[in-house]
Specification:
Layout (H helix, E strand, L loop, with lengths): L1 E5 L3 H12 L3 E6 L12 E5 L5 H10 L3 E6 L6 H6 L1 H21 L4 E7 L10 E2 L10 H20 L2 E7 L1 E3 L20 H9 L6 E4 L11 E2 L1 E3 H13 L1 H8 L6 E6 L5 E2 H12 L5 E4 L10 E2 L2 H7 L7 H10 L3
Parallel strand pairs: 1-2, 1-4, 2-3, 4-5, 5-7, 6-15, 7-12, 8-11, 9-14
Antiparallel strand pairs: 10-13
Length: 330
Amino acid sequence: MKVLLTGCGFIGRNIVYALADNGIEAVVIDSVEGTENFSLPGCSFYRCDITDLDAVGKILDEHSDIEMVIHSAMVSSVAGSVKEPYEFYFNNVIGSLSFVHLLKDRGIRKIIFASSASVYDDVPGFMVTEHSPMKPRSPFGRSKYIFEMMLRDFCNAYDMYCIALRFFNPIGIDHFYNTRENKLPLKTGSNLLEQIIKVYTGKDSRFVINGDDWNTRDGTCIRDYIHITDLAAANAKAVINFDASFKKAGPEYTNYLSLNIGSGVDVTVKEFIIAFQNIVGEKLPTYTGPRRIGDIGGSYANIQLAKKTIDWEPCYRVEDAIIDRYSMLY
């Protein structure tokens, strides 16, 4: 099987590893300079923006046996989207819409979409299922919500099929990063763990906790932190079990399926800081600031539908992700 993957950043690159580990050939496109120098057995890499439809078309001509697309190319940052909403709507909605329309015209009708848990509203108890109410609070979350609705309409109108994987908060690093055939700099994202690493390594003077007056057990936000290796594995499982997943999901899911991809464990910001401090044996300087625009008090994933449909479940804890990332510092 051959899959087209868009995006080769923190999330995309780890998806490439998971596909390769499962014997799935990937054709990878990304607009970032140097993408064409990335090398991994069984995979092809092209520097190409998804909005350059002529260039994408040529790649599809060269790889006419592509059966499925994992669309993970995105601009990703809640805080950044509040400051620069145009960039997020243009890339995550307008550019993606033209790209998927091209796929439809080329007869590629199976899509796995990298969505986000930021589409959800607050719910009592903080655990969200795929049927929980949606109310994205930031341009980033709204861009994901809008595009999910567009994909659902495409599936209904054009006989297409889509699995939207709603990622929670990926952290950590690939277990085997140092042994991968990799010519590009390390990609780690801009998540909570990376912010803490900057404080630990002295790049930032202190870690800012965005509000301690949330309605949670210690006043700080609750999140679901998933090891990037587990998140990447979910994409490979979705590819392998794509057709069967709709049958396993039940009669209400005929051509569109959304799945929560998280650890299934709720962790507050303070609890995460304590876990990091216990592992490194040092106390971090912290400061409590105001709430960020676009934040919610918390959410974590009910992952039962993903277990049932794509035969996936996470293997690693928050502590495993911290240890893996910490080991890369020395």
